[in-house]
Amino acid sequence: MASLAFKVKSKNGQNILKDLTSESTVGELKMFLSSLSEVSCERICVLCGYPPKPLDISNDNKTLSEIGLKTGETLIIEEKSAPSAPSVAKSDVTKPIENGISHETIGCRPGILMKKVVPSDNSCLFTSIGFVLNGNVDTSVHSLMRQIIAMEVASDQDTYSEAMLGKPNSEYCDWIQQPSSWGGAIEVAILSRFYGLEMAVVDTLNAIINRFGEDKNYGQRVFLLFDGVHYDPLYLEQSDGGIQTVFPAEDMDIYKEAEQLALEAKSSRQFTDLNKFTLKCMICNKLLTGQVEAQKHAKETMHTKFGEV
């Protein structure tokens, strides 16, 4: 029996499902998807393919091979409308599917936009993206994300030229897979496309939001906070103790909250000036001030491992 792996997208973010085989049943698939998406088996709707189309999962006894599912497929989970549901206000109606993701407006939003502090270990960008995708701090996710980025860059040497990367393509691919290498705009853009999400980076140094994937019309958006050196994820802390990290792209209320957070952070100087921040060379322990000094030290000594101080 062939093992299968699926990328699963739902309102809870993105997950990888690896626990099924070609002989697993539709009923088993629905139970796993229900656990990941928190949508009951009776109301699960699965979209698959490009453009995404509903998958026939009406017969729980059919095998996954019989319904044509292959490893590597992306499964988008939606929730069917409850039958004979009472009429609701216009603002609560589920909107049509766009790019395979349904958009739901949020009426009265309980909670406040908060920052989740992640470790300053040179992989803070990747840990932050892992948090908004999965809802927990996992410092091991950087390895997979670095591999994803290296594969994308290596596959398109025309786009990812030395002029864009600041180093030869192959050298960059080796560099980005080192745990000591920092991620930035190039890496955010690649991961935005890979995960099919708009990634809004709240820049507290300039009090602006840089939107990666804005031109792709993705149905969902996540928020990252950037202070000039360090990334942290943003989430909505709800009154019932739960958290929300993925938001409909059309939800401009939460976007405005993020804009306000950027303004408040800048006014209270919660940012790092790249010309003044301190780095430590992890090879010779020399302290360096600012990005320029760090680059000069790396060029002179070939030391490339730096830590935040």
TrEMBL record:
<keyword id="KW-0378">Hydrolase</keyword>
<keyword id="KW-0479">Metal-binding</keyword>
<keyword id="KW-0645">Protease</keyword>
<keyword id="KW-0862">Zinc</keyword>
<keyword id="KW-0833">Ubl conjugation pathway</keyword>
<dbReference type="InterPro" id="IPR038765">
    <property type="entry name" value="Papain-like_cys_pep_sf"/>
</dbReference>
<dbReference type="GO" id="GO:0036503">
    <property type="term" value="P:ERAD pathway"/>
</dbReference>
<dbReference type="GO" id="GO:0005829">
    <property type="term" value="C:cytosol"/>
</dbReference>
<dbReference type="InterPro" id="IPR003323">
    <property type="entry name" value="OTU_dom"/>
</dbReference>
<dbReference type="GO" id="GO:0005634">
    <property type="term" value="C:nucleus"/>
</dbReference>
<dbReference type="Pfam" id="PF24560">
    <property type="entry name" value="zf-C2H2_OTU1_C"/>
</dbReference>
<protein>
    <recommendedName>
        <fullName>Ubiquitin thioesterase OTU</fullName>
        <ecNumber>3.4.19.12</ecNumber>
    </recommendedName>
</protein>
<dbReference type="InterPro" id="IPR057766">
    <property type="entry name" value="Znf-C2H2_OTU1-like_C"/>
</dbReference>
<keyword id="KW-0963">Cytoplasm</keyword>
<dbReference type="InterPro" id="IPR013087">
    <property type="entry name" value="Znf_C2H2_type"/>
</dbReference>
<comment type="function">
    <text>Hydrolase that can remove conjugated ubiquitin from proteins and may therefore play an important regulatory role at the level of protein turnover by preventing degradation.</text>
</comment>
<dbReference type="InterPro" id="IPR048857">
    <property type="entry name" value="OTU1_Ubl"/>
</dbReference>
<keyword id="KW-0863">Zinc-finger</keyword>
<dbReference type="GO" id="GO:0008270">
    <property type="term" value="F:zinc ion binding"/>
</dbReference>
<dbReference type="Pfam" id="PF02338">
    <property type="entry name" value="OTU"/>
</dbReference>
<dbReference type="Pfam" id="PF21403">
    <property type="entry name" value="OTU1_UBXL"/>
</dbReference>
<dbReference type="GO" id="GO:0030968">
    <property type="term" value="P:endoplasmic reticulum unfolded protein response"/>
</dbReference>
<dbReference type="GO" id="GO:0016579">
    <property type="term" value="P:protein deubiquitination"/>
</dbReference>
<feature type="domain" description="OTU">
    <location>
        <begin position="113"/>
        <end position="237"/>
    </location>
</feature>
<dbReference type="GO" id="GO:0004843">
    <property type="term" value="F:cysteine-type deubiquitinase activity"/>
</dbReference>
<dbReference type="InterPro" id="IPR029071">
    <property type="entry name" value="Ubiquitin-like_domsf"/>
</dbReference>
<keyword id="KW-0788">Thiol protease</keyword>
